[in-house]
Amino acid sequence: MRYLIGVDIGTSGTKTVLFDECGRVVADKTVEYPMYQPQNGWAEQDPQDWFAAVRDTLIAVSAALPEGGEVAGIGLSGQMHGLVMLDEAGEVIRPSIIWCDQRTGAECEEITARVGAERLIEITANPALTGFTASKILWVRNHEPENYAKCKHILLPKDYIRYRLTGEFATEVSDAGGMQLLDIAKRQWSAEVLEALDIDPALLAPVYESPEITGYVKGLGVLEGVPVVGGAGDNAAAAVGSGAVAAGRAFTTIGTSGVVYAHTDKPVIDPKGRVHTFCCAVPGKWHVMGVTQGAGLSLKWFRTQFATEISYREIDEIAATVPVGAEKLLYLPYLMGERTPHLDPNARGVFFGMSAMHEKKHFLRAVLEGVTYSLRDCVEVLREMDIPLDGMTVVGGGGKSALWREMIAGTFNLPVKTIQNGEGAALGVAILAGVGTGVYESVEAACDKLIAYNEPQLPTDTDAYEAYYQIYRTVYPALKASFAKLAGV
User: Fold this and answer.
1) Most buried of 23, 101, 135, 483 (most Cβ within 10 A)?
2) Shared domain check, 24 and 131
3) Residue 47 and residue 41 in contact, taking contact as beta carbons nearer than 8 Å
4) Helix, strand, coil in percent for the chain, rounding step 5
5) pTM for the model
6) Domain membership of residue 13 as a residue range
């Protein structure tokens, strides 16, 4: 039997999974590593830590390969947007500035001025954002010119791992789109943006489609000669792992942040830049996604500060005793500012409608509903863009909550389902490896064969959720100017 390996290089650790060709888990291994914050708002990691974790996890899962089994291919998923700079010898020049680093506000203004706000969105499908890679490149050039002068190769986190495994410099369309240097419609580096930003195209790796073979393992001591395919950025990989690979299919992730992701067969771009459009891992296709910053973070924050005696399972039970609307208590989950749809770093969390009758149980329910309404804001932008949504798959830690899924179904007015195999991104890139090496005919065919869903939760209480959502969406505009004044105090 043929086997496939999916490697997911996340922010907190790397998880590597060995699958058989039916998508069943044979073995898995996770290794964690630190994040460094040398200054307030900065976030860095050591690429050597990523490689050590990948090496150790690959050795561990390959040891579990059944006798006579063959690993057909390896797929890589990774945290997006991180900047890895290598010198002429292929050595790391400085720690990687990763996706959540916020130091590049001035560079975002520089990018917008050089390219033009409208033109930047037309080409890269997104406004200049601190999380993306282009602003990080400019920051190093502006603040560490000696390091920029040494730089001969610019890679994303998973693509640095590819280089260490295969010796090849390569990236693929889904992750490259998050650099803000790719022409999203043409699926190639934008000569116009690179020229405007004075970035040498020779610094960037060739761009592949996600299932294409980009190199072969060498020098690791195990898995010698095994093909490594392009892989995908984390959300694009999770889309494959959840079957969101055709028009009408979408998923919601409730982790620390929250994401609403929808597949699209054409590059649909929001001219206001409220959602991100990227190339997806299905060749010739795209996806659109909205992001809310403080999803699971909101519940974790509230529990840590005010309800440590209550387990997450008990939160569901307690919040379920409160009716929809939490007795007229609303929550805005803007603990970390907000992206979709407001693009406002000054936004802050709010409980609205408090009265003396409210108890802890009401606040718990309001937090769950407020996150759901914020995700609904993402859905509304997708609907405004005429992106079809036939249903919603829910993944991530929050997706384990039956109550949260009920809220999503009722608020989105869509059936909600979960997947039976919870391996997400690792499964997604293993599928891509299978497509690239001929195990599967196509990404879509593989997903239809391997991914099974639990019975959907159908929408309930839609009128009640709708009434509160319409009130919820009026609160931010009323407070926007006050948020800005507060930030300036």
Assistant:
1) 135
2) yes
3) no
4) 40, 20, 40
5) 0.91
6) 2-234
Residues 6+ apart with CB under 8 A from 470: none
pLDDT of residue 396: 83
* CATH code at position 179: 3.30.420.40
Query: How many structural domains are present in the chain?
Result: 2
Beta bridge mates, 165: none
CA distance 447 to 349: 39
Under 8 Å between Cβ of 289 and 235: yes
> Do 213 and 313 lie in a common domain?
no
Identity at 6, one-letter amino acid code: G
CA distance linking residue 194 with residue 306, whole number of Å: 49
Same domain, 319 and 362: yes
Q: Is residue 162 part of a domain?
A: yes
DSSP track, 370-397: HHHHHHHHHHHHHHHTT--BS-EEEESG
**CA atoms 119, 124, 129, 134: torsion sign:** negative
Q: What span, in angstroms and rounded, lies between the C-alpha atoms of 95 and 147?
A: 11
Of all residues in the chain, the percent with pLDDT exceeding 70 is 100
**pLDDT exceeds cutoff 90 at 476:** yes
**Model confidence pLDDT, tens digit, residues 31-80:** 999 999 999 889 999 999 999 999 999 999 999 999 999 999 999 999 99
Q: Examine the pLDDT at 354 and tell me if it is beyond 90.
A: yes
Residues designated as active site: 234
Taking CB atoms within 8 Å and a gap of at least 24, the contacts of 442-445 are 443/210, 443/211, 443/240, 443/245, 443/281, 443/282, 443/283, 444/245, 444/246, 444/282
Residue 424's pLDDT is 87
Q: What is the pLDDT of residue 162?
A: 98
Q: What is the pLDDT of residue 149?
A: 98
For residues 215 and 155, give the distance between their C-alpha atoms in angstroms, rounded to a whole number: 15
How far apart, in whole angstroms, are the C-alpha atoms of residue 437 and residue 71? 10
Q: What does the alpha-carbon distance between residue 186 and residue 368 come to, in Å, rounded to a whole number?
A: 40
CA 29 to chain centroid: 21
